[in-house]
Amino acid sequence: MAMEIRTTGRAVPARKVTNDELAKTMETSDEWIRSHTGIGARHIADDSVAASDLAIEASRRALESLAAEDGITAEEAAASLDLIIVATASPDYLGFPSTACLVQAALGATKAAAMDVAAGCSGFIYGMDAAAGMLATVGTRKRALVIGTEVLTRITDWEDRGTSVLFGDGAGAAILEKTAAPSEGKGKRGIIRSLLGADGTGAEHLIMHRGGGRFPFKKGETVEKPIHIEMNGRAVYNFAVKIVVETIERLMAEEGISADALTRIVPHQANARIVQAAAKRLGVPEEKFYLNIEEYANTSAASIPIALDELARSGSLKRGDLILTVGFGAGLTYGGNLIVW
Ligand code: UT7
């Protein structure tokens, strides 16, 4: 029994804002942003668009591809889903209903269970492992839709140049299916190994303080700033380099492989410098890591599934390729999936 990615999809808002455009509204420059992060632009959703809207668009693309492959309609593909997991740090609503339920309704995925995963930028990796486990434990469950979707520009403090230049909006989706292929030994396929972890002692380093039960908005209160991301960039950077290296090393050691066996490493796109530093420490060529941060900036839980969809649709991934996804984020959380494509 294998957990295979059947198809993928992505949705990115049309409006692209370059570093130079941002530099007209705040004290920053294309040179600073590129040299410190590798970011060249970000896509920003219109005010009317929320995380569920991007998730629905990305999911429809994945479902259309599935429908084409299986000779069914996209509606039938949606109705065949047993589970929807949405990873997001910028859900439509605080607490409930889950963004996954909104996606479930819009797609007409009438038999699907639906829930959100809150694991920051590691959310898609957590979601894939959760979905694989949930498909494995119940015999009748066969198909899961796992989505990473964000409208981070909606929860960004545009007066803070240290964070606002970093984030972008977008969504990526993958359809995971339980198949008869083996998950171990010769000819193994799908998600063959996962590693998930957290270091909650770093919770304060990447946080949205307001709006939750700890510091709720109160009647009559004058709010100085909208709800927004607060980040200790240096602390997250140091954690990220260390944990990306450790996660890749542990997954390769558990699988008994070296980096040569990997077709691609698909990292969370937070900062090109984090990837470069990790590649150097690992002694792995930088080109093995897929980077699209220049175009999209950091789209949190959406960054890995967007990258997977770009790779899949451009024909860069062949059946049987071994890929490793690796991420880190608020929580602090981290993780990786080792996948035979
Ligand atoms: O998805 C996971 C979430 N986040 C991350 O992975 C982020 C991890 N951290 C990072 O990527 C980096 O720490 C940042 C990109 C956030 C910051 O880079 P840095 O090299 O750590 O810069 P810094 O915060 O130490 O700031 C250096 C200087 C400061 O000026 P002074 O104090 O040296 O005069 C900042 O005020 O750069 C200044 N600065 C800027 N200048 C122009 C900070 N932001 C900007 C900006 N434009 N946008």
Question: Would you kindly provide a brief summary of this structure?
Answer:
With 341 residues, the chain is of the alpha/beta class. It has a single domain, classed as Peroxisomal Thiolase, Chain A, domain 1, CATH 3.40.47.10. 34% of the residues lie in helices and 23% in strands.
Indicate the topology.
Layout: E1 2-11, E2 16-18, H1 19-22, H2 30-37, E3 41-43, H3 51-70, H4 74-79, E4 83-87, H5 99-107, E5 113-117, H6 123-137, E6 143-151, H7 161-164, E7 169-179, E8 190-198, E9 206-207, E10 230-231, H8 233-255, E11 264-267, H9 272-282, H10 293-296, H11 303-313, E12 322-329, E13 333-340
Parallel strand pairs: 4-5, 4-6, 11-12
Antiparallel strand pairs: 1-7, 2-3, 6-7, 8-13, 9-10, 12-13
The structure holds oxa(dethia)-CoA.
Residues 28, 32-33, 36-37, 121, 161-162, 165, 206, 231, 233-234, 236-237, 240, 270-271, 298, 300, 329 line the site of oxa(dethia)-CoA.
